[in-house]
Amino acid sequence: ALEDGLKKADADPSVKAVMICGENGKFSAGADIRGFSSPKTLGVALGPIVSLIESSEKPVVAAIEGVALGGGLEVALGCHYRVAHAKARMGLPEVTIGLLPGAEGTQRLPRLIGVPAALDMITTGKHIPATEALKLGLVDEIVEENTIEAAIRLANKVIGQPLGPRRLSLKPVPKLPNMEAFLQEAQVKVKRQARGFLAPELCFQAVQAATQRPFAEGVRRERELFQVLLSSGQAQALQYAFFAERAVHRWATPGGINLLFIIFDSILLLSLGLGTMGQGIVTSLVKANIPVVALEQNLEYLNKGRKAVMVLLEREAKKMEGGAQKLDFHNPARLQFTVDFNLLHDVDLVIEAVFENMALKKEIFHKLSNICKPGALLCTNTSALDIDEIASATSRPQQVIGTHFFSPAHVMRLLEIIYGRHTSPSAIATAMQLAKDMKKVGVVVGNCFGFVGNRMMFPYVEQAVFLLEEGSRPEAVDQVLEDFGFKIGPFRMSDLAGLDVGWRSRKGQGLTGPSLPAGSSARQRRGQRYSPLPDLLCERGRFGQKTGKGWYQYERAGGRTATPDPWIHGFLSQYRDTHRIETRYIDQEEILERCLFSLINEGFAILAEGIASGPEHLDVIYLNGYGWPKHRGGPMFYASTVGLPRVLAKLQKYSEAHPDVPKLRPSAFLKKLVAVGNAPLKEWMSYLSRQSPKL
Ligand SMILES: C[C@H](O)[C@H](C)C(=O)SCCNC(=O)CCNC(=O)[C@H](O)C(C)(C)COP(=O)([O-])OP(=O)([O-])OC[C@H]1O[C@@H](n2cnc3c(N)ncnc32)[C@H](O)[C@@H]1OP(=O)([O-])[O-]
Questions:
Q1: Where are the annotated segments for Disordered (predicted)?
Q2: For the complex shown, is ipTM > 0.90?
Q3: Do 264-451 and 472-578 share a fold?
Q4: Which tens digits make up the pLDDT trace of 158-175?
Q5: Top-level CATH class of 472-578?
Q6: Is the beta carbon of 34 within 6 A of some atom in ligand 1?
Q7: Domain 264-451 class?
């Protein structure tokens, strides 16, 4: 349509200028991501059209409203002028879906706004507001009122003016005094952050080509690099992740889709001991423009919590344009701190964020049930505790729901929403709306120990520790998972979170500590293999970063720099001698497979039990809450790319070698999917006897 329109305009002598706009208040979100399978519908076909726009003999003006992203912005770059609405956003987000701007954007953008700004936009995929676009020279004008009229006004003004200087392909790339040095430094930074993700590095190379070659040759280079990415498999994984994240918004209850939810206008965050989690949640709610009252059990904790929240909010305000005004967190109507439980009467929704202690949570929920108004929703922030048991302490279990935030709650996007046996659909819908308003990714999951994310994490960490017993080292195991693409491996993660968190939970379960029955075997619990290594470290005060020692050593308590610790190496070899464990060299493939396939296996069990609605839900949880490398699509997508027969065969092999480790035994659902011929991911759920999810 664009091509036809242009040709008609060019051929019609009565047409003096052309204005290109979008529809429904959106210029364009770029090429249809669904088009990955046929490159023709992606970038490649669009490039020549952009050149056609640019070579038009009549001035072409872009009227940018809403968004101009990807190919959409590349079309605007082919125009001679660009007018944007003040609220419009622009960007080249192709890198976030494993590609690069494939319609000559890597060659035009640097010519328009310079290499540093262009490189930043193209290698991060960030959206920029119209005000920044104006500063960069990306647009010529921004308007508050009707963008199209403004664009037509500009078009009339420039009729007859020479178009040469407005054609970006004819402009040289602005020079930098130290271009070489700048590019070298930028390339190192891109490489360091990529961890196996190809697109940022190739985006860099495309922009670098703009600084070294004439436009046409740069375009050829861009095309080559685009094809490499398209066939890399990473683009498919990211395309899957893009749509998976949108699929989780759709959930169903047996009675069908429920979109009703309570409009809440004030929320009380109940947090006894506004600790890290409570501070993050309050900060998140204020950022979402939701009125919050943070309640504490006494003034001492209140003041401590308030101070910490203010620090977080000041920091968040600095990151936003006009942040202080927008957040307005000194306004008591927006954010209050109190010790007065009576404020509970008026709120629509409470988020409790206290210690992971069932008795304490039940006591609080019993109180909430008696004080809160009838329609109020009672949410518990818990990472594993039984929602039904907490709900049983109230007279309104239909309004009790789990909201599992991930620390730091004002940064991590994932919110696991856990429904209990009696939770009502409107409670779920309200929690999902809260997630959306907090700009989080809400995923509805069923109630079981560890819910979904942590339940899949248990076997992953369990295998990592078993590998230490059998001969590996924390740094060796972490290296394998970090080479795979995780930001941090299981042991660095454990040191960061604190070994004492798990230790407290295991003591509560009677797996270690004073509640462990006398005479229990050191390395068996309930008939299966158990490693006391984390308990032994905790008994020696090695909690991780917070104590300066854990699986690694740190420069000081609270230090962040993990260094392999000779003490651990000695301790492990002594432990193996004590328990007469024959050590062996464990190769990287075994480390990776035992950690990842045991996690994936648990995912299949979760799907079979109806705890999650589909593999996309598990993948969205892992991509947004556990640092799974996005260019690998998520654990279940990764399993589909490895091939389920291989995952099954390897689990069978490891399970035979470790018969006392139930989590290595292949799940029945995995076996069924292999038996029907390695079903594609999209069809997995159709093989489950229970058609609709447990919801
Ligand atoms: C040549 C060129 O070089 C290259 C090769 C390219 O151009 S490659 C493509 C580059 N462009 C992108 O990467 C932009 C991707 N989209 C977004 O960032 C966001 O969508 C948004 C624009 C900021 C709006 O966010 P939103 O929160 O308001 O709504 P939504 O829920 O996200 O989206 C609303 C609905 O629109 C669907 N959708 C959005 N963008 C889409 C796209 N580009 N292709 C296909 N579907 C898309 C989305 O799946 C959802 O569908 P459903 O779930 O309702 O069925």
A1: 508-528
A2: yes
A3: no
A4: 999 999 999 999 999 999
A5: mainly alpha
A6: yes
A7: alpha beta
